[in-house]
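INFO batch 0412 | record 1 of 1 | parsing
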Amino acid sequence: MEKERREEMKLEIESLSENEEFARVVIAVFLSRLDPTLEEIDDVKTAVSEAVTNAVIHGYQNGPGTIYIKAGIEGRLFTIEIQDTGAGIPDVGKAMEPMYTSDTTGERSGMGFSFMEAFMDEVEVTSALGKGTTVTMKKRIGE
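INFO prediction complete | emitting tokens
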């Protein structure tokens, strides 16, 4: 019986909008070990982009901070966790509703969590005011 391989990677990036693309590329390269389809790569990259952008804009309000990214592979299951230690979300259930946004400028669509849920198999969000938010997403690759 072949043992399922387990691999992990961790990354810390500054809360800067330009680091969103960096996070997407790093995760795509790590994911490539599972020989995903282009569609699977794009799905994961989109979800990562949304989660990192939320941390920059909502978690740290475009200010300084660190975004912690942890990804793991176990068999064909890809798991990614994106965490900030910023403002936190007052009502996670409300924040996850499509079209809901706390942005008052009209620049944000409120679809970040909806995109994450559409492109990943599982999305879990935990948050505490003043302590930050953790988004954990899972996707089965090649099944």
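INFO post-check: Strands lie at 6-14, 66-74, 77-84, 122-128, 132-140.
INFO record closed
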